């Protein structure tokens, strides 16, 4: 069974640009969550989508947005990039049961110059 | 706001020794997960703990949950080098949303 696939793996952008990251969940998983991981702040929850609807949201500014498609694939968009957005962005999928762990992709490492 | 605190944050052990990592959290929850992350890699699920008193074991690792004390422990028995990694606990309050601790970086030395 294929795991969670994130693309691209690495990305370099400059301040002010925007970026779109993609996540394909494990087949059958309808819940997709996004996390930001940085050395200073650790792992922070961005948002979660289920059946094309945002179900949970973390404490990030509106520059961070996402969506989910009917096939459960999800995209995350960050607009007006700032230096502090440099991070590893992790996507996780699950079966939408509270007793199920989240399965993480390898992440997209975003560097802002 | 839910707080999840792990300690210690850094742990250097000798092979063959035992140690425990602690995870305290600030709100009622009966869903706690442990993950492992190797350098440059993603997170791997280790344990899912769903009720008070739950205990799970896999190899040299054993995790437990005390929901009344809001405490989970990850016990390492007879550490080996392959266990060197960063270990995270995460508390789940809504399906799909987990709050993570800061992680414990474990180094096992020969």
Average pLDDT score of chain B: 93
Q: Estimate the helix proportion of chain B, in percent.
A: under 10%
**End-to-end distance of chain B:** 41 Å
Q: How many β-strands of chain A, per DSSP?
A: 11
**What sequence of helices (H) and strands (E) makes up the elements of chain A?**
EEEEEEEEEEE
Proportion of residues in extended strands of chain A = over 45%
| Oligomeric composition of the shown chains | heterodimer
Beta-strand segment tally of chain B: 11
Biggest interface and which pair forms it? A-B, 28 and 23 residues
Count of helices of chain B?
Answer: 0
Most strands sheet of chain B: 6 strands, mixed
Helix content of chain A: under 10%
User: Which sequence of SSEs, written as H and E, runs from N to C of chain B?
Assistant: EEEEEEEEEEE
* Count of discrete alpha- or pi-helical segments spanning 4 or more residues of chain A: 0
The separation of the N and C termini of chain A measures 37 Å
Largest β-sheet summary of chain A? 7 strands, mixed
Strand content of chain B: over 45%
Estimated structural class of chain A: mainly beta
Structure description:
The complex is a heterodimer of chains A (113) and B (110). Chain A is mostly beta strands. Helices cover 0% and strands 53% of the residues of chain A. Chain A has no helices and 11 strands. In chain A, the strands form 2 sheets. In chain A, strands 2, 4, 5, 6, 9, 10 and 11 form a 7-stranded mixed β-sheet that branches. Chain A has a 4-stranded antiparallel β-sheet with strand order 1-3-8-7, with no helix packed on it. In chain A, strand 5 and strand 6 form a beta hairpin. The model of chain A has no long low-confidence stretch (mean pLDDT 93). Chain B is mostly beta strands. Helices cover 0% and strands 59% of the residues of chain B. Chain B contains no helices and 11 strands. Chain B has strands spanning 4-7, 10-14, 19-25, 32-37, 43-49, 55-58, 61-66, 71-76, 85-94, 97-100, 104-109. In chain B, strands 2, 4, 5, 9, 10 and 11 form a 6-stranded mixed β-sheet that branches. In chain B, strand 7 and strand 8 (71-76) form a beta hairpin. The radius of gyration of chain B is 13 Å and the shape is globular. The interface between A and B is medium-sized, with 28 and 23 residues.
